[in-house]
Amino acid sequence: MPSLQIQVQPGERTLVNVPTIFHTDPRTLRESVTLLGFDIEVEATPTRYTWHPGDGTSKSTAKPGRPYPAKDVTHTYRRVADEVRPRVDTTYSVRYRVDGGAWTPLGQTLTATGESTSLEVEEAAPVLVAR
To answer: pTM for this one?
Structure first.
C-alpha cells in the first residue's frame, strides 16, 4: 500500500499552544495483474488516517484533512522542541475481482506507515514597543 506524506501548516516551524494543521493527499490504488492465467484487479481505498504529531500522542480520523482555512485535523503542541517528526499512517480497505467478476472484500484492512517530516516547535511572546 502506498504511504502518504503528511502536510503541515504553517510549514517547517510552528508555535506552542497554537493549533497546527495536518492534511494529506489520499489516493485510491488500482492495480491489475495476471496470475496463473487469471486477470486480477485490486482496489485499495483509504478509510482511516492515524496522525502521529511526533510528541507521543496520536489520533485517528476518517478524513484526510484539508489545508488552511479548514481546520479538520489539528494538533496543539504543549512544549518547545528542536525537532518533532509528525507522520500519518493510512489504513486501506481492499477489494479484488478475478476475470471481471464480482468485487470481493479482502476481509481485513492494511495499514501503510507514512513518511515523517521534520517540524520545529517554538515559543513566542508578545512584546510592547514604543512608537
So the answer is: 0.88
